[in-house]
């Protein structure tokens, strides 16, 4: 049997799932029998010697252990471990290789793979994730936004019988995402997505480390080293702090931290998610009252202050399932079937997936850089003209007309941009493709019409095309590495 | 450009240079980074007149350079008066010159990658005197912060927004909302590197500062 795989490649933990014979997504336990594998690698020389739990135990104690690189995905950050240099992309590929091996050991041949990314992941971080899959020899079908995967899982799950608009509040180890989805039976449509790719459990662990360091200093007059109270210890103690006060043994002293004190320390971080929630509801064109309920996803939603905040924002008791940690991976494997090759499905699997529909939307604002008169400054400046907005249904195509600026202009510069919010300032976007259209015929006056078309095809691949109308000269570019998800 | 227009253009140049020097001298020192920006601006300003004749350009450039030198003297002797300068600039009735003054002033503020309290105070003062909206000033300021070559270590968001006890909670919240949106967007829209680091820092600082202003 060839399987469909979903991988939740998290900042602190990963989970993998597949679609079982009866058509249900199921978590694949790792070789220790755990449903999650910590995103930690222990190196010996250039080789990974331990992944997950064994590496996590030594985090902060052994400088051959690396963790929490997901936030740097897409950057040029270098990690020097045991004399060898790694990038966030190569580290992710090492982790993926191991997860993929666990999966093939358990279930054999794998056909389609979907990896999840935070909804707030910038363009380069998404590209880096795809590159990591390639380096790990994984045949990636799609990537999907984490809250969308979670929404898909909850829509599939008959127990919940969801109907209407839902907010998926996903606060994980490193990132915060919020999606507004419309669930109608087994149809899932994403209406709007937003988030903060630098907010999650990892920040709370650091805050707890700081509290303990400061208290220890006050008590003993001595500074704590990282190895005296590691991030791993902080993470474990933080989990306890969701239900009780803790006394932490550090070297030979007891440091006590109360629940109240900790929740107060992380308050501003938690509070910042409220702004993002209100913004995404606005982007969706909805009011708070239009939201049926909020679905919790991600380990950090166990924090009491998150519960209180969500309840306050949405005026409802949040939906908390047993799959808070697993929903993303479970939804991803379902998506692997929806977007993958369904010819090998058995009857049971077919009957489940026939009924499920996902409406894809565009992941960002895509624009074209043109020159326009800035009236306030009395001169021409570069401006981003949005061609395809964020969150519109796919497939789609949009065309805008532009005009040449000079007599005898034989070339037109073409720059395709991407941004998560609507802005016309080229400084606030990322250029995802730069090139030109030409050579165009000589001797023509200015104001020749140039048509710029952006398109998302049924396979999720974006194309940009540029056409000089009078001469018929055109250029079509498949921006294949922008292949996106819901 | 007509003769009378050109005369006004030169007048505006003189005033804009002087205004920028007031900002530059607010810490009683004139930094190389600030001087470089004004010199660069003068070069561009000469180009904007649209002369193709090299001698003519050189002549104007020399005139502007002399204005610059004289103005430094005045600034050194504490003889530049911001209220008077802005008033004179307003009398020229050119929105373009007013925005140009604002642009240069903000560039001077961010020149050394540190935003001093005095500088931001003066920026808002200049904008008030020139009748430039809060929105416009913040737009210019955000752009120049993003263009800095280093992540600012500390930034006082309340001062950046010019929030003081006279500003209502409602208004403050509106300003915060806009600023938050700009930097939240920039933190995921810009390419990784200094720009993104600046955006992340700003977004974080805005979130922290905003907390003190509960939405009623």
Notes on the protein architecture:
The complex is a heterodimer of chains A (486) and B (216). In chain A, 28% of the residues lie in helices and 34% in strands. Chain A has 486 residues and is of the alpha+beta class. Chain A folds into two domains: 3-198 and 269-359, ATPase, nucleotide binding domain (Nucleotidyltransferase, domain 5), CATH 3.30.420.40; 365-482, Substrate Binding Domain Of DNAk, Chain A, domain 1, CATH 2.60.34. In chain A, the strands form seven sheets. In chain A, strands 1, 2, 3, 4, 10 and 11 form a six-stranded mixed sheet that branches. A five-stranded mixed sheet of chain A has the order 17-12-13-14-18. Chain A has a four-stranded antiparallel sheet with strand order 20-19-22-23, with no helix packed on it. In chain A, helix 2 crosses helix 3 and helix 8 runs parallel beside helix 9 (304-314). Residues 482-486 of chain A have low confidence and may be disordered. By secondary structure, chain B is mainly α. The longest helix of chain B is centred in the N-terminal third of the chain and has 23 residues, at 54-76. Chain B has ten helices and no strands. Chain B has two domains: 3-131, TerB-like; 150-216, no CATH class. Chains A and B meet through helix 3 and helix 8 of A and helix 5, helix 7, helix 9 and helix 10 of B.
Write the layout of secondary structure elements.
The complex is a heterodimer of chains A (about 475) and B (about 220).
Chain A: E1 3-9, E2 13-19, E3 25-27, E4 37-38, E5 40-44, E6 47-51, H1 53-57, E7 65-67, E8 79-81, E9 84-86, H2 88-107, E10 110-117, H3 123-135, E11 140-145, H4 146-156, E12 163-171, E13 176-184, E14 187-196, H5 201-220, H6 231-241, E15 246-250, E16 253-257, H7 259-265, H8 267-283, E17 291-297, H9 304-314, H10 327-339, H11 347-354, E18 357-359, E19 365-374, E20 379-388, E21 396-403, E22 412-419, E23 430-437, E24 449-456, E25 462-468, E26 474-479
Parallel strand pairs in A: 1-10, 10-11, 12-17, 14-18
Antiparallel strand pairs in A: 1-2, 2-3, 2-4, 5-6, 5-7, 8-9, 12-13, 13-14, 15-16, 19-20, 19-22, 21-24, 22-23, 24-25, 25-26
Chain B: H1 3-24, H2 32-48, H3 54-76, H4 82-91, H5 95-110, H6 117-130, H7 134-146, H8 157-160, H9 169-189, H10 194-210
């Amino acid at each position: 049997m060839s399987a469909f795989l979903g991988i939740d490649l998290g900042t602190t933990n990963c989970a993998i799932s597949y679609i079982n014979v009866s058509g249900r997504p199921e978590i694949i336990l790792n070789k220790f029998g755990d449903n999650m594998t910590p995103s930690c690698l222990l190196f010996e020389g250039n080789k990974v010697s331990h992944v997950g739990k064994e590496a996590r135990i030594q985090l902060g104690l052994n400088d051959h252990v690396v963790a929490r690189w997901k936030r740097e995905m897409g950057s040029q950050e270098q990690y020097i471990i045991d004399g060898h240099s790694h990038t966030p992309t190569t580290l992710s590929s090492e982790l993926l290789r191991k997860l993929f091996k666990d999966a093939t050991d358990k279930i054999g041949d794998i056909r389609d793979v979907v990896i999840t990314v935070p909804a707030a992941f910038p363009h380069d971080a998404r590209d880096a994730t795809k590159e990591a899959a390639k380096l790990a020899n994984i045949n990636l079908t799609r990537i999907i936004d984490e809250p969308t995967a979670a929404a898909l899982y909850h829509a599939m799950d008959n127990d919940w019988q969801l109907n209407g608009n839902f907010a998926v509040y996903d606060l994980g180890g490193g990132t915060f995402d919020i999606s507004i989805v419309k669930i109608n039976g087994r149809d899932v449509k994403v209406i709007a997505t937003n988030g903060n790719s630098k907010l999650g459990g990892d920040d709370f662990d650091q805050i707890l480390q700081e509290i303990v360091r400061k208290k220890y200093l006050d008590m003993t007059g001595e500074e704590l080293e990282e190895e005296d109270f590691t991030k791993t210890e902080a993470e474990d103690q933080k989990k306890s702090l969701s239900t009780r006060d803790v006394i932490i043994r550090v070297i030979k002293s007891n440091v006590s931290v109360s629940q109240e004190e900790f929740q107060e320390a992380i308050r501003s971080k938690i509070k910042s998610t409220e702004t993002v929630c209100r913004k995404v509801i606005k982007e969706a064109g909805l009011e708070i009252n239009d939201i049926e309920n909020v679905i919790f996803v991600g380990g950090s939603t166990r924090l009491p202050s998150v519960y209180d905040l969500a309840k306050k924002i949405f005026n409802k008791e949040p939906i908390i399932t047993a799959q808070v940690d697993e929903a993303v991976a479970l939804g991803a494997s379902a998506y692997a079937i929806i977007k993958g090759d369904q010819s090998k499905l058995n009857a049971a699997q077919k009957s489940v997936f026939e009924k499920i529909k996902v409406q894809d939307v565009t992941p960002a604002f895509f624009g074209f850089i043109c020159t326009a008169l800035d009236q306030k400054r009395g001169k021409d400046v570069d401006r981003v003209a949005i061609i395809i907005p964020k969150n519109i249904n796919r497939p789609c195509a949009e065309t805008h007309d532009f005009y040449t600026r000079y007599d005898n202009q034989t070339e037109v510069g073409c720059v395709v941009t991407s941004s998560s919010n609507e802005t016309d300032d080229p400084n606030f976007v990322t250029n995802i493709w730069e090139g030109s259209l030409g050579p165009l015929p000589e001797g023509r006056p200015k104001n020749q019409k140039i048509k710029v078309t952006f398109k998302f095809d049924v396979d999720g691949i974006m194309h940009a095309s540029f056409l000089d109308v009078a001469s018929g000269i055109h250029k079509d570019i498949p921006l294949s590495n922008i292949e996106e998800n819901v | 450009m007509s003769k009378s227009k050109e005369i006004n253009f030169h007048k505006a140049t003189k005033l804009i240079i002087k205004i920028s020097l007031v900002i530059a001298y607010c810490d009683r020192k004139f930094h190389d980074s600030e001087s470089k920006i004004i010199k660069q601006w003068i070069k561009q300003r000469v180009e904007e007149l649209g002369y193709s004749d090299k001698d003519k350009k050189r002549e104007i450039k020399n005139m502007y350079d002399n204005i610059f030198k004289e103005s430094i003297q005045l600034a050194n002797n504490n003889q530049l008066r911001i209220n008077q300068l802005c008033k004179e600039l307003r009398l020229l009735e050119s929105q373009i010159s007013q925005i140009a003054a604002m642009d240069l002033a903000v560039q001077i503020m961010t020149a050394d990658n540190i935003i001093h309290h005095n500088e931001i105070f003066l920026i808002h003062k200049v904008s008030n005197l020139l009748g430039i909206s809060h929105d416009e000033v913040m737009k210019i300021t955000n752009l120049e912060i993003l263009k800095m070559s280093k992540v600012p270590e500390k930034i006082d968001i309340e001062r950046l927004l010019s929030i003081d006890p006279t500003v209502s909670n409602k208004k403050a919240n509106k300003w915060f909302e806009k600023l938050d949106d700009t930097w939240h967007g920039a933190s995921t829209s810009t390419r990784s590197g200094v720009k993104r680091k600046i955006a992340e820092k700003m977004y974080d600082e805005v979130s922290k500062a905003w907390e003190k202003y509960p939405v009623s």
